[in-house]
C-alpha cells in the first residue's frame, strides 16, 4: 500500500524519544552559545539603562557656582602674570583658543607658547570678570561669558589697553575638574567715560 512500513523495509524501530523530538529539535551548540551571549548582552544593557534612570538629577545651580569659582581662580592666576603652567592647566589638552585677528591655537603646546610670550612682554596684564555661567542638565558641560581687559605693548613698544568680551566653553573631565575646551575673545567698545 504505497510506502512500506519501517519494519518491512528492514529498518530498526526508532525510539519514542527521538520521534518526540522531531517537533522541538534543539539548536546546534554554536547557535545556543550565540543566543546566550546575545541574551546576556541584552540583560546587561537593560541593567545599565535601569541604573542610569535611577541617578539623582544634577544640581545645576551648584555646578554653575563651582564653574564660576573655577573661572575666578583662573582669572586670579592669570592676573599675576607669573606661573605659565598654572594658567595653562585650566585649558584641556586639546583646547582651542580663538583670538581676534589671529590663527586658532590648538592644544597645550601652542597655548603654552602664547601664554609664555604674553607674560614676557613688558607691560602685559590681563584680567576678566565673569558675568554669567550656564551648566547643562548633565552637569558636565557649561559655558561662561564675561568682559576682560588686556594691556600689551604695540609695535612701537607703547602699552595700550583693550577692553573685550569673551565666551569660554568648559567640560568636566574624568578627574572631576572643570577645564576650558574653547576660549573665544574679541575686542569690544571702550567703556563709557564718566564725566564729573
Mean pLDDT across every amino acid position: 83
- Which runs of at least 5 residues are low in confidence (pLDDT < 50)? 1-24
What structural class do helix, strand and pairing data support? Answer: alpha+beta
The best one-word shape is elongated
Q: Whole-Å distance between the termini?
A: 125 Å
What is the string of SSEs from the N terminus onward? HHHHEEHEEEE
Oligomeric state: single chain
Rg over CA atoms, rounded to whole Å, is 34 Å
Beta-strand proportion? 25-35%
Placed side by side, the strands forming the largest sheet appear as 2-1-6-5-4-3
Report the biggest beta sheet as strand number plus sense, adding barrel if it closes. 6 strands, mixed
Overall strand count: 6
**How helical, in percent, are the residues?**
25-40%
Tally the helices: what do you get? 5
Topology:
Layout: H1 16-21, H2 29-53, H3 60-80, H4 84-88, E1 91-99, E2 105-106, H5 108-120, E3 125-135, E4 141-153, E5 159-172, E6 178-187
Parallel strand pairs: 1-6
Antiparallel strand pairs: 1-2, 3-4, 4-5, 5-6
Structural features, described:
- By secondary structure, the chain is an alpha+beta fold.
- Helix content is 36%, strand content 30%.
- The protein is built from five helices and six strands.
- It has a six-stranded mixed sheet with strand order 2-1-6-5-4-3, with helices on one face.
- The longest helix has 25 residues.
- The protein is elongated.
Amino acid at each position: 500500500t504505497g510506502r512500506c512500513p519501517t519494519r518491512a523495509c528492514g529498518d530498526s524501530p526508532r525510539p519514542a524519544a527521538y520521534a518526540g523530538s522531531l517537533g522541538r529539535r534543539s539548536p546546534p551548540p554554536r547557535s545556543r552559545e550565540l543566543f546566550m551571549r546575545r541574551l546576556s548582552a541584552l540583560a546587561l544593557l537593560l541593567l545599565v539603562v535601569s541604573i542610569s534612570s535611577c541617578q539623582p538629577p544634577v544640581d545645576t545651580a551648584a555646578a554653575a557656582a563651582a564653574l564660576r569659582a573655577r573661572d575666578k581662580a583662573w582669572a586670579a592666576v592669570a592676573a599675576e602674570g607669573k606661573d605659565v603652567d598654572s594658567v595653562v592647566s585650566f585649558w584641556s589638552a586639546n583646547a582651542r583658543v580663538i583670538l581676534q585677528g589671529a590663527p586658532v591655537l590648538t592644544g597645550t603646546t601652542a597655548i603654552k607658547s602664547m601664554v609664555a610670550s604674553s607674560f614676557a612682554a613688558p607691560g602685559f596684564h590681563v584680567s576678566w570678570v565673569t558675568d554669567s555661567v550656564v551648566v547643562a542638565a548633565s552637569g558636565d558641560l557649561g559655558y561662561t561669558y564675561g568682559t576682560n581687559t588686556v594691556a600689551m605693548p604695540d609695535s612701537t613698544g607703547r602699552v595700550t589697553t583693550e577692553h573685550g568680551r569673551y565666551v569660554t566653553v568648559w567640560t568636566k573631565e574624568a578627574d572631576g575638574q572643570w577645564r576650558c575646551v574653547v576660549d573665544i575673545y574679541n575686542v569690544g567698545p571702550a567703556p563709557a567715560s564718566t564725566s564729573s
